[in-house]
Amino acid sequence: MSEKESLIQGGQVETQKPETQIHDPIEVAINLLFETFRMIYPSWMRGKWDDEVDFAKDIWVGHFRRFHSDESPEKKAKLIAQAVDQAIDRFPTHPPTLGEFKQILAVRPEHQRVKLEVIEPSKNPEVAKSAMEKLKDLVGKKKL
Question: Are 52 and 24 in contact (CB under 8 A)?
Fold first, then answer.
């Protein structure tokens, strides 16, 4: 387990003020994400005031609290930590926007496994003929 993952699972990380500890796993994950991006993308957030960075973090935290609402905060934090590595691979020259980062985490319906259902062919010739006619209409061919 990496130091980053152990910090997220522990739910604590020191912030700018040593006497303040964060106990929300999502905030911990976003703080680690911002620190990682700051190291990987040196010009990112350069010249920004601490208040501006804190405001940006608050926006990210708010989005991830609402994102995948059926997941626990701990699970979301773990997903965020895993997505950081993917973000670095997908965006080697610049950090992703919040929207781009959320897309890394998004599970789209077309990416989910589909359960195929096998339908036994009908032994009734009338039903088979009717099904073939419907197929011809769908395909638009005279002969199949």
Answer: no
Q: How far apart are CA 41 and CA 11, in angstroms?
A: 25
The answer to whether 23 touches 12, Cβ cutoff 8 Å, is yes
| Nearby residues of 5 by Cβ (< 8 Å), 6 or more positions away | 78, 81
20-62: per-residue pLDDT in tens?
Answer: 566 889 999 999 999 999 999 988 888 889 899 999 999 999 9
Tokens (6 digits) for 99: 């929207």
Long-range contacts of 36-44 (CB under 8 A, 24+ apart): 36/4, 36/84, 36/88, 37/84, 37/95, 40/88, 40/95, 41/94, 41/95, 44/94, 44/95
